[in-house]
Design goal:
Alpha-Beta Plaits, four-stranded antiparallel β-sheet, 41% helix, 2 domains, 161 residues, WH-like_DNA-bd_sf, Arc Repressor Mutant, subunit A, alpha+beta
Length: 161
Amino acid sequence: MESVSLDAIDLRLLDALQRDASQTNQRLAADVGISPPTCLRRVQRLRQEGLIERQVALLSPDRLAAVLGHGLQAVVEISLDRQNAAALDAFEARVIADDAVQQCWRVSPGPDFVLVVAARDMPDYGALTQRLFTADANVRNVKAFFSLKRAKFEPRVPLTP
């Protein structure tokens, strides 16, 4: 992995974009204290260097619930029988390809993986467990924790200039 050099302005740009990536280049430049052309060049460089992976819209599950229903969200711990590199990679590739898996973390010690999954309802969650866990002979243990309330969701990476 090649080294990336960041100065205080780059860090301020990244922090501002994490808070609101929809703002105009002119607004971003003014907030950070640089000219719009400089701002545009720096943001393009940060994208090219892979520091900005993508821009997404964060939806409000509470507001959407009136239309779509609340659904289920669960944090699921997975332990595998075999933890060699090939077995871990194979399980990871399979679960990250599933749209119901919102996050996949390979962890240690304890379980091998922690997943955050979303399902429409309990039958949908049951189908998810069948296709991702029960059908996999290498899955030894599954422990699910169902969300009752989301008190905080903040995808920002802490940056200290």
